[in-house]
Amino acid sequence: MSVDLYAPQIPDNLNIRFVENRIVINRPAQEVYDWVTTWANLPKWLPMASDTEVRRGKEGVPAELGDVLLENIVPELNEKPKLYTVVARVPGKLWTVVGRDVLDDGTPAPAMHAIATFTTFDLGDGTTLFCRLFERLIPATEPPGPHPVEDPARIQPGLELIKAHVEGEAS
């Protein structure tokens, strides 16, 4: 896959950054969607997630509108836990969550900091194009340059893991 596909469209010095990763998975779109939107599967593929806790909804099934997940981040990133809420859901096609940091006192930050949108496109031959678009608002105190969650090279292996799990080839 060409590196040109990941050329950022928004300069690093703005208050928002994003990354989009894509992969073709040899399974129907609904199957891909169901696996990716099941909270329990997040730590199986997302390199930043160390573990998760469902705060609203059910862990072993696709998350519904309004469901909430606490994501703990791998310690080496020195990041606060994230609280994600499902805000858009079109079964088999689109799923969007917004995230807020969890403050040291355990309360959610007053404003969201991230939006993750997953889309599945039926390619008509039993395969699916899966896309993950992640947008993050950047605090004024953060130095310029990409954060690990915005690095397509760190995220793409996660999409390879999704593919392996959904296609039944994960170890």
Q: Which key terms come to mind for this protein?
A:
3 helices, Alpha-D-Glucose-1,6-Bisphosphate, Chain A, domain 4, single chain, 171 residues, alpha+beta, SRPBCC family protein, globular, 7-stranded antiparallel beta sheet
Helix content: 10-25%
CATH topology (fold) name = Alpha-D-Glucose-1,6-Bisphosphate, Chain A, domain 4
Low-pLDDT stretches are none
How are the strands ordered across the major sheet?
1-7-6-5-4-3-2
Whole-number count of domains: 1
Total count of strands: 7
Protein name: SRPBCC family protein
Organism: Amycolatopsis minnesotensis
InterPro entries: Polyketide_cyclase/dehydratase (IPR019587), START-like_dom_sf (IPR023393)
